């Protein structure tokens, strides 16, 4: 839930992403655990249960299309080792 309930930054940045509320609803309705804006934007991300990433990504892509925007996506696993120093 923490990824979807940013009441400070997300509302200000969401205005810059056409249809953001629709995108978020589609992602959550498709099974995402959370959905928000990546960094300062313009990227968005969804946290998904195993094997649901493509379904969620397609739902969000469809919502982007309804806004007249093209999008691309990737599905990635979260790293288990956490932060590390690479030399």
Describe what you observe in this structure:
This protein is an alpha+beta fold and 87 residues long. The protein is 34% helix and 9% strand. It contains three helices and two strands. It has helices spanning 9-14, 20-29, 53-66; strands spanning 34-37, 44-47. The model has no long low-confidence stretch (mean pLDDT 89).
Helix content: 25-40%
Number of strands: 2
Order of helices and strands: HHEEH
| Structural class designation | alpha+beta
Question: pLDDT below 50 for ≥5 consecutive residues: which ranges?
Answer: none
In what order do the strands lie side by side in the largest sheet? 1-2
Q: Cα-atom Rg, whole angstroms?
A: 14 Å
Mean pLDDT: 89
DSSP strand (E) fraction?
A: 5-15%
Main sheet: strands, sense, barrel: 2 strands, antiparallel
Helix count equals 3
Could you give the distance between the termini?
Answer: 35 Å
Bulk shape: globular
Write the layout of secondary structure elements.
Blueprint: H1 9-14, H2 20-29, E1 34-37, E2 44-47, H3 53-66
Antiparallel strand pairs: 1-2
Brief characterization of the structure:
This protein has 87 residues and is α+β, with helices and mostly antiparallel strands. 34% of the residues lie in helices and 9% in strands.
């Amino acid at each position: 839930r923490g990824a979807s309930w940013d009441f400070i930054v997300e509302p200000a940045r969401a205005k810059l992403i056409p249809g953001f509320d629709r995108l978020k609803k589609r992602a959550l309705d498709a099974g995402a655990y959370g959905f928000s804006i990546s960094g300062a934007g313009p990227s968005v991300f969804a946290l998904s249960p195993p094997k649901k990433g493509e379904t969620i990504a397609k739902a969000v892509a469809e919502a982007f299309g309804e806004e007249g925007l093209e999008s691309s996506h990737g599905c990635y696993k979260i790293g288990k080792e956490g932060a590390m120093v690479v030399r």
